[in-house]
């Protein structure tokens, strides 16, 4: 199955439309029925929700802030240009070798995050990304001159069970839910933001 977060306003953004088209082609190539693909973005309009329904895709009912469990199913997460907290939350929700080994993430390069952030910031604010770096494999999507802004900095990430089992036991001991009290820009729209009528700037698709 597939879960897509942070697609953006594809009714007004050519970049988001190209990402949606890529997602649909990917589902076809992987032989994943559209009904097995669920999406969520708090910025979706009623019209966009209707279009996704006509395409046979499912909508997640609530803003999970990326905290989506893979359960027992192998799951592809399509998260192009999402905020770092969304990836961190997803890892936290599935923080076991068995669960992580059942997921693939297409999204912002974790290795690039490691290179761009000071180690203390990465470990403080995005500790689950920091801890999983040695237990994953990553391959960058090839550059295409027509889609430089659409899939730049995008990689495929997967988590081989053997590599995860080689991580130290201490890596798995700390499972506190991320809260980001010291993070100036969390880059996600939280549930309470929408409830309060706030409209923080979402990361551009």
Automatic annotation (TrEMBL):
<keyword id="KW-0732">Signal</keyword>
<dbReference type="GO" id="GO:0005737">
    <property type="term" value="C:cytoplasm"/>
</dbReference>
<feature type="signal peptide">
    <location>
        <begin position="1"/>
        <end position="37"/>
    </location>
</feature>
<dbReference type="InterPro" id="IPR012942">
    <property type="entry name" value="SRR1-like"/>
</dbReference>
<comment type="similarity">
    <text>Belongs to the SRR1 family.</text>
</comment>
<protein>
    <submittedName>
        <fullName>SRR1L protein</fullName>
    </submittedName>
</protein>
<dbReference type="InterPro" id="IPR040044">
    <property type="entry name" value="SRR1L"/>
</dbReference>
<dbReference type="GO" id="GO:0005634">
    <property type="term" value="C:nucleus"/>
</dbReference>
<feature type="domain" description="SRR1-like">
    <location>
        <begin position="1"/>
        <end position="158"/>
    </location>
</feature>
<dbReference type="Pfam" id="PF07985">
    <property type="entry name" value="SRR1"/>
</dbReference>
């Amino acid at each position: 199955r597939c879960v897509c977060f942070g697609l953006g306003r594809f009714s007004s953004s050519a970049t988001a439309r190209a990402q949606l088209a890529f997602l649909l082609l990917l589902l076809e190539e992987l032989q994943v029925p559209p009904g097995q693909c669920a999406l969520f973005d708090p910025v979706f309009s009623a019209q966009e929700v209707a279009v996704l329904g006509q395409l046979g895709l499912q909508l997640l009912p609530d803003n999970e802030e990326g905290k989506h469990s893979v359960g027992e199913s192998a799951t592809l997460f399509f998260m192009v240009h999402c905020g770092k907290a969304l990836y961190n939350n997803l890892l936290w929700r599935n923080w076991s070798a068995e669960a992580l080994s059942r997921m693939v993430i297409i999204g912002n390069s974790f290795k690039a995050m490691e290179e761009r952030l000071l180690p203390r910031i990465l470990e403080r604010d995005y500790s689950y990304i920091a801890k999983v770096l040695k237990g994953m494999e990553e391959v960058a999507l090839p550059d295409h001159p027509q889609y430089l802004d659409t899939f730049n900095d995008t990689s495929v990430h997967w988590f081989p069970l053997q590599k995860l089992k080689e991580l130290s036991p201490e890596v798995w001991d700390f499972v506190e839910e991320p809260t980001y009290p010291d993070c100036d820009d969390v880059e996600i729209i939280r549930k309470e933001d929408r409830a309060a009528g706030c409209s923080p700037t979402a990361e551009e698709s």
